[in-house]
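User: Can you help me understand a structure? I only have the sequence.
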Amino acid sequence: MRPEHPDWLIKACLFESSPPCLAPRTPRTAHQLLRATTTMVFDAFKRFDPQDFVFKIAQTQEEIDGFWALRREIFCEEQKVFQGSDRDEFDAYAIPIVCETLIAGMEDSVVGVVRIDERQPNVWYGSRLGVAEDFRAVKKISPGVAFRNHQPVYRGLGALGAGLIYKAVSTAHALGCREFLATVQYQNSNFFQRLHWEPLGELELFGLRHVKMRADLNYYRPAECVF
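Assistant: Let's start by predicting it. Here is the structure, written out as tokens:
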């Protein structure tokens, strides 16, 4: 007797709710496929939320492309701080750092960014900190994140942002930093203070209220693994 639903039809419905199409589909990352809320043949497919992440210096072309794309999405399209591009003179020598999701132990997509650069001898700055909208509040994080990244694990609102900050400062500290500074949008200054930063004064940048802040290097120990 022939089965009511052929195997190929059931497998196809796990990821796509639309019928097969002869035209090629745009490639999507694993978490985009797994997060899709689609109607299956039998039941709705529960949205997948990655719980494993890696914080690292962007080195591959895919990581660098993801770094630029997310910056543009956050600072140009969402916040509209810049028109078209947020790149500046510091990008010529800044170190790009990303947070990537891990799916089945494999790096998947860039969901967080920050950059660091040395502007005076032993004085480093962090800037362009941002996290993709879907990942700004992470309730569940794998215990392996702390072991893999050699840094504290944060949870809840701002968890990945806090992880990026730790990676940024600890990396600079390992590279000889003696003072780490950042200009932070005013509404985020309390968040930074909870992460062992002190305010140094207010200023205006790009028409927005900012606070210049300094990290406590006694808390942000030099990174055990830079690259």
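Now, to help you interpret it: Confidence is low (pLDDT under 50) at residues 1-25. The chain has six helices and nine strands. Let me know which part you'd like to focus on.
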